[in-house]
């Protein structure tokens, strides 16, 4: 009986911790995938290749693409919401030098706590960073 009461007290904290961890690890993974796709664009042998990442805010997933071919699709955990991007048509495209065609950001939100992370891509250098506040 005592164990049941303790479990009921601890369970909500455990759920919040798990969803916060899912948000943070999703932000890290997305930032890593962006950096990796940039490097693939730099190493491309085909000068006509278009490396891009397509974000689907309805399905909470993103796809790493080469032209129109989906190389890999990543579905975010259930507690993580892909809220929005400010890229045209939700597409982040890279030049063959690895620079983004346009800078911008992606917002991920924890549906349990309401906390958010922004994955921010610098338009000039292509630097990728994670922050808790949106870019100015």
UniProtKB/TrEMBL annotation:
<feature type="signal peptide">
    <location>
        <begin position="1"/>
        <end position="22"/>
    </location>
</feature>
<keyword id="KW-0732">Signal</keyword>
<protein>
    <submittedName>
        <fullName>Type IV fimbrial biogenesis protein FimT</fullName>
    </submittedName>
</protein>
């Amino acid at each position: 009986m005592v164990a049941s009461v303790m479990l009921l007290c601890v369970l909500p904290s455990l759920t919040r911790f798990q969803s916060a961890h899912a948000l943070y690890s999703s932000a890290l993974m997305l930032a890593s995938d962006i950096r990796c796709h940039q490097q693939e664009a730099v190493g491309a042998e085909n000068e006509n290749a278009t490396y891009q990442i397509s974000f689907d805010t309805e399905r909470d997933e993103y796809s790493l693409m080469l032209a129109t071919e989906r190389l890999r699709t990543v579905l975010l955990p259930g507690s993580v919401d892909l809220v929005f991007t400010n890229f045209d048509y939700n597409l982040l495209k890279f030049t063959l030098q690895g620079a983004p065609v346009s800078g911008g950001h992606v917002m991920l939100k924890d549906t349990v706590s309401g906390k958010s992370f922004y994955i921010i891509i610098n338009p000039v250098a292509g630097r990728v960073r994670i922050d808790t506040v949106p870019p100015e």
